[in-house]
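Q: My labmate handed me this sequence with no annotations at all. I'd like to see what the chain might look like in three dimensions before we decide whether it's worth expressing. Could you predict it?
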Amino acid sequence: MTMSIASQEAVEDTAKQRQEDSDIKRNNVELNENVVSSIVSNPVGITKQIIKGVVRAKLNKRRHLVIPGAISPNYLDHLMPSIVTDLFQPQTVTYNGGVANIKQWKISCYLEVMESGIPCTNPHEGLKSHCRELLDTCNNLFASWYRQQHACNDKTTSSYKVDEEGNPIVSRLMTFITRYTPAPDENALLKHVDGAGKVDGSVVVALPIDRWTASEEENSFEGHGGGLTFWDGRTKRSANGTRGPEEIVYDTRSGDIAFIDRAVWHQANPITRGTRWALVIFYKVER
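A: Here is what I predict for the chain of 287 residues:
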């Protein structure tokens, strides 16, 4: 498959950011008091990465940001065994009208659901407790990113509530872990917007390849799809003459985090072998 120019740029940016991550020295400074340093790969540089990333994104009129390795893969390796061997219990939920043309979604376990019980009424409290530190860390990172993304004369900036550090106060509306497989209706979540565009933003964290229920070779999807695609940024004319936003493809790995603004079109790309795991959080910004 020929990769678009935008996708090539995304790959180059990803490689550059991975190199920058390894070059930034670590010390005891944290994003804020609530971030557990062992969870964030680079507590010193993460704020800098977010700021630089948002500047680049805005120059290209993009409303999303992917930071490679923001969450420590080592930390996730400690978190995952209990998830894949015990805690993960997928719930079957029916979406009115479907999500990405799938009416019955069977591959996610919900840690938190909306107040109205959407999409299910039995969230997994044990899984939520197991992931609590990671969820709280994602809150902090999302708030830091949202502040930067909506700065500089953005009319939404003055409308949200802030904490003592000036970051928006955010709350999780829905949280779930998804396991993709090659089976039909389980291999991807095709082009969609999160929460039908009714959430203020979302986070996707790529989780490790499952090495605990089978060998890594058996469960790996490497070379067989995966990653994220976004339709975002400057409007361009495609090969067939239609105009639309850029198509940007990211080959995500364990610990990569995606920040997604409201109503940005994206998808979890199909896999044809192995399993792929992801943590997804929908957010509300308090106003």
